[in-house]
Structures are given as structure tokens and as C-alpha cells.
Here is the input.
Amino acid sequence: MDYGKCEYCGGHIVEKLCTEDRRYNGELMVFRNVPIGICQKCGERYYKGPILETMEEMAQKKLKAVRVISVPEYEFTGVPLPQVMW
Here is the structure.
């Protein structure tokens, strides 16, 4: 499928099958083998509308998952900033 040139860097976009993590209604879902256009120069990702619509439909219908995985959750408490001496 032709994606044209990258709108950010002008690089060549190639379609690859990737794994996408999305949140729907606060629930994390992982989609494998999603066809995505990826710029070979800067890595920007391009999604075709029908692909995003299919992912949305799969999430809404809550189809039977291939497998269920466990994902660790962390509470970000901040990182101490280094002291700056002027």
C-alpha cells in the first residue's frame, strides 16, 4: 500500500506489521500484526483510516482475545531535580 513521502522529513514510508498498544475506556489493549506505514528516515507512523476503525470496532465488541497478558503499573512520584549552583 502506498503511503507517499513522510510529511515531516520527506523520507520513504514502508508498510510493516507492528504491535500497537491502545487504551479504550481506560482499558489497555494490545493489537498484533497491525499494518502501519513507518518512515524509514525518522520513524513517524502513519495509519490508514480503515485500520484504525477496525481496531476501534474490535475494542468496542471486546472480541475474544488471543491471550491475556499481565502488565505492571507504576505510580510516578517525580524525579528529584539536580541542584543548580549559580
Notes: The mean pLDDT is 90.
